[in-house]
Each structure stands twice: as C-alpha cells, then as structure tokens.
Design goal:
With 195 residues, the chain is α+β, with helices and mostly antiparallel strands. It contains five helices and eleven strands; from the N terminus they run αββββαβββββαββαα. β7 and β8 form a beta hairpin. The radius of gyration is 19 Å and the shape is globular. Pfam families: DUF5947.
Length: 195
C-alpha cells in the first residue's frame, strides 16, 4: 500500500468516527441528555435510548439485571460522615440490595471502594432520615467537603461516576494540580434538585 493510499484510509476512518453516543442495549443514537441503566452483572452504567429506557421503569424491573437509574437529586443539610472512615473530602456511599453500604472516593486511577461500617451508616441515617430512602445500587449519598466545600446530596449513581471521570481527567501530578478542584466545584455548582 502506498503512503497516499494509507493516508486516504486513515482520513476515511477519521471521517466515519463520530462523537455520537449510542445506546448500549440496541446501538441507536442517543441525545446528550439520556437515561442510564445499571448493569447489575458488571456494576457498570450503560447509556439507554428512550425506547430501551422505557423497558425499565424505576419500580418495575428492580429485580432484573438492568435497573433504570433514577433522576432524583436532593440537596441535604450537612451530614456527619466522619464515622464512616472517609479519608478524603470527596466520596459517595451506595446502599446495596443486601443492606451493606459501599463507600467510594474518586482517585486518578478510578474509584477506590470499601465497605462502610454498618453501625456507622445506621447512625448517619438516624441523623439524616432522607438517606433511608436511597434506592439500592442506583442512588448514592454524594459528599464534597474538600477544601471549604460543604455539599451533601442524594444523587443518581451516574452523577457519582461523572465525578470519578472528572477527577481522572483533570488530575495532574501527586496533589492533583490546579485543574481538578475547580472542575469538581463546577460539577457541584451545576447540580440542581430534581424530585
């Protein structure tokens, strides 16, 4: 193959590439604002087109492999999470279907995960009763107390994964650099309550 032919093949492949997201179930294009499903088998969030998301109602298919991620966002008053053993100021907590709670914090390598102490979680829920309404596996308590922030939210799990992606994308060097915390602050500034 000549260098001109190789260049045409590369250009042709680049022209076919798009930044359009696709439904992870059927392959249809999805708009930038679309719903997500939690794949319980691999604990990963999948993009869903409107028809596929309609197959999974928030209350209907809760026992199947795929769970529709709700859209509820609720700003909470400050929640005392010190007893949960969070070593950093940015973390999220997911209640599992079996009652356990996993704690996660974003890092440049992805989300670090550990199981929260059951009694400590029970104490947090007693102090903040809305946390008792967390949908297992698909909603989380998202906390940002890094620097001078005081943000506590009930959010869909996909919001938590967005924070993990922001940290991975923006982190530089050992301390995070100058871009990561402004990007995290912007994420929280753009959160809006949705019942």
């Amino acid at each position: 193959m000549t260098s001109g032919a190789l260049a045409r093949v590369i250009r042709s492949a680049a022209d076919r590439r798009t930044d359009v997201e696709r439904c992870d179930l059927c392959g249809a294009d999805v708009p930038s604002e679309h719903r997500h499903l939690l794949d319980g088998g691999g604990e990963e969030v999948l993009c869903a087109c409107r028809p596929c998301s309609l197959l999974f109602t928030e209350t209907g298919a809760s026992e199947g492999r795929y769970r529709l991620v709700p859209q509820r966002r609720v700003r909470l008053p400050p929640v005392g999470t010190r007893g949960l053993g969070v070593p950093v100021g940015l973390a999220f907590f997911v209640r599992r279907a079996d009652g356990t709670v996993t704690a996660h914090y974003p890092s440049p390598a992805g989300a670090t995960r550990w199981e929260a102490d059951p009694q400590a979680w029970s104490d947090v829920v007693t102090d903040c009763p809305p946390l008792a309404t967390l949908e297992p596996d698909v909603e989380a308590l998202l906390v940002n107390t890094a620097h001078s922030a005081r943000e506590h939210w009930i959010t869909p799990i996909d919001d938590c994964f967005r924070v993990v992606a922001i940290v991975r994308r923006e982190w530089r060097g050992l301390s995070g650099g100058s871009r990561v915390w402004p990007a995290v602050d912007q994420f929280f500034a753009e959160l809006t309550e949705q019942p």
